[in-house]
């Protein structure tokens, strides 16, 4: 329940010079083009970080632990986060992040996943993966999605910092396939949910592996084609983060927000977040509900399937 009441997919580096954030955006896009990721340090002030942490406490208290090795048996995940509080919704439409998405995705792009991730001590390395691997379009290719991971706790090499392989966004399917075979998405019986170590990384990729160490309030933005994983937590305290991911308007989102979030709660969100959650139309009529704009459903006005979409 909620806590409170003309573009195209641009080439990398195509930025409107009249935008206030144009210099930052140019740097962001250049890093994404070259490395597949960019780290923006201290984008959130300390007060915002602490407010997000406090807002997450009741959700984490329910102990939503992982059910398979991919989620992580000592990792807590809170899904559909953008619809569970105004602070989370505001983060999903952070202007610096949306400026990147505006440049790389088509208009009407969607939020494909929104979750908190809390890696506890004793968690092992997550299997390597890419965030848009389920879109079976031959690689190398442009990304179908853009991912963000916000550091609520500082990320260190010991507490489970995200690990990335720089340049892997350019890999083809054959090279990528060698890493993805270790991913296990099968729900395990409760008495079998024990962390297990990841297989060793092949020697040729070790030089490109990087721990994304960053202070609290920072964010890593990366292409959905970049190989990455959650790191091993060898520290004595959990590592908390928030991840929002955005996808092309024609791609099926990972999370079904229409079922996971109540319409009454979505109705209280900003128009931009409503659009990100799928209450929008991608021309000419992708996303309609009974032939009408899906926002009508939030008003309880969704009966006449013959009326034209507004």
Low-confidence stretches: 1-18, 304-310
Nearest-integer average pLDDT: 88
Distance between the termini: 28 Å
**Name of the CATH first level of the largest domain:** Mainly Beta
Task: Provide the gyration radius in Å.
Answer: 19 Å
Percentage beta strand = 15-25%
The backbone outline, from C-alpha atoms, is globular
Key attributes of the depicted protein:
six-stranded antiparallel beta sheet, Jelly Rolls, three-stranded antiparallel beta sheet, alpha+beta, 9 strands, globular, 2 domains, disordered N terminus, 310 residues, 10 helices
Describe the protein in words.
This protein has 310 residues and is of the alpha+beta class. It has two domains: 22-253 and 262-275, Sandwich (Jelly Rolls); 280-310, no CATH class. Helices cover 25% and strands 15% of the residues. The protein contains ten helices and nine strands. It has helices at 22-35, 46-61, 86-92, 95-104, 173-180, 203-206, 257-260, 263-266, 271-276, 295-298; strands at 37-40, 75-78, 110-119, 145-151, 163-165, 209-211, 219-223, 228-229, 239-247. The strands form two sheets. A six-stranded antiparallel beta sheet has the order 1-7-4-9-3-2. The longest helix is centred in the N-terminal third of the chain and has 16 residues, at 46-61. Mean pLDDT is 88; it is low at 1-18 and 304-310.
Summarize the structure.
By secondary structure, this protein is α+β, with helices and mostly antiparallel strands. It has ten helices and nine strands.
Q: What does the secondary structure layout of this molecule look like, with pairings?
A:
Layout: H1 22-35, E1 37-40, H2 46-61, E2 75-78, H3 86-92, H4 95-104, E3 110-119, E4 145-151, E5 163-165, H5 173-180, H6 203-206, E6 209-211, E7 219-223, E8 228-229, E9 239-247, H7 257-260, H8 263-266, H9 271-276, H10 295-298
Antiparallel strand pairs: 1-7, 2-3, 3-9, 4-7, 4-9, 5-6, 5-8
């Amino acid at each position: 329940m909620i806590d409170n009441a003309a573009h195209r997919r641009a080439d990398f580096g195509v930025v409107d010079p009249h935008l206030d954030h144009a210099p930052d955006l140019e740097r962001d896009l250049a890093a994404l083009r070259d490395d597949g990721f960019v780290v923006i340090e201290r984008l959130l002030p300390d007060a915002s970080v602490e407010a997000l942490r406090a807002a997450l406490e009741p959700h984490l208290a329910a102990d939503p632990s992982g059910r398979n090795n991919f989620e992580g048996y000592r990792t807590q995940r809170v899904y559909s986060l953008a619809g569970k509080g105004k602070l989370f919704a505001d983060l999903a439409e952070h202007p610096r992040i949306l400026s990147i998405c505006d440049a790389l995705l088509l208009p009407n792009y969607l939020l494909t996943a929104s979750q908190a991730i809390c890696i506890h001590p004793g968690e092992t390395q997550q299997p390597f993966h890419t965030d848009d691997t389920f879109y079976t379009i031959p690689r190398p290719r442009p990304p179908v999605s853009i991912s963000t991971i916000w550091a609520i706790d500082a990320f260190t090499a010991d507490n489970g910092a995200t690990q990335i392989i720089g340049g892997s966004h350019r890999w083809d399917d054959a090279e990528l396939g060698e890493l993805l075979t270790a991913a296990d998405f099968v729900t395990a019986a409760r008495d079998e949910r024990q962390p297990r170590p990841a297989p060793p990384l092949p020697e040729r990729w070790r030089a490109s592996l990087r721990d994304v160490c960053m202070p609290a309030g920072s964010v890593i933005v990366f292409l959905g084609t970049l190989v990455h994983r959650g790191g091993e937590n060898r520290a004595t305290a959990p590592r908390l983060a928030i991840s929002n991911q955005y996808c092309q308007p024609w791609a099926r989102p990972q999370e079904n927000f229409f079922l996971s979030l109540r319409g009454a709660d979505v109705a209280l969100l900003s128009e931009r977040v409503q659009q990100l959650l799928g209450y929008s139309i991608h021309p000419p009529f992708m996303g309609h509900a009974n032939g009408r704009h899906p926002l009508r459903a939030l008003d309880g006005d969704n009966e006449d399937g013959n009326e034209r979409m507004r």
